Amino acid sequence: MINTTAMTTLCLKLFGVILVLSVLLDYTTQVFPFNFADPQWQLTVVTSLVERGLVPLVGMALILIAYWMDSMAPTPAKETSLDLRLAVYILAVLLGLMFLLLVPLHLNNLNQAKTAAIQQIEQGAGHGKEQIQQVLLRLDALSKNPEVLSQQIAQQTQVLESGQLNGTPLSPQQLDSLKMERDQLKGLQQMAKNPVALQQKIEEIKTQLEKQVQERQDKAAGEATGQALKQGLRIGLSSLMLAVAYATVGALGLRTVLARRGASPQV
Fold first, then answer.
1. Cα 193 from Cα 203, distance rounded (Å)
2. Any residues with CB less than 8 A from the CB of 19 and at least 6 apart, and which?
3. CA separation (Å) from 11 to 23, 63, 249?
4. What are the tens digits of pLDDT across the range 83-99?
């Protein structure tokens, strides 16, 4: 007759060992090839480790439950030289330490990534301001050359009427942008004979364009900061909770093992 309890505990131990070993193997493949100098590599690896960090804990729980069921059985299973509990406790302590160290590492990498993203945004804003200056110089040059200005307005009017540029249909957004530019050129054409009004118009266009660039920069910087905060809370808190869980299992388990060994000579 098959001992149902022994079969159940054996299956639990087997499933637990498979879960633990499969995740440790996955961790190894995630870490290699090793590129610790790359913050983006660190972010990817840490995220992967934390997202699968609960699986080894489940495997350890299955193993420990199996040993608890063995001890509670009416006829306890015969003890063997292979006891997985000590290995489980030591591994739990090591994983707890690893997840604890991942918290500041991940937050530091997120801060570096956010700083790099903001720098790229600022560089893009700088390019945008350079383009604004080019647009203003172009408008100024056109205002001083009425014939070229008239030709430019005629060309844009033709494109707006056809809805195509070089045979390629324009999107509604592109048409609106082109219409706005043509209206601005018409305004320049009307004010070309009034230098004061012309200068005011150019300053108005400059202010409008700079405001658009600043709004895009602020929006992009806010999104980068929000993404970093969201990622930091999700991965950072998860890693911290995993560290507490593994450390608790490991510490309590090792204390039980040491207490048992300390009491064994008195038996």
1. 17
2. 55, 56, 58, 59, 62
3. 18, 9, 21
4. 788 899 999 999 999 99
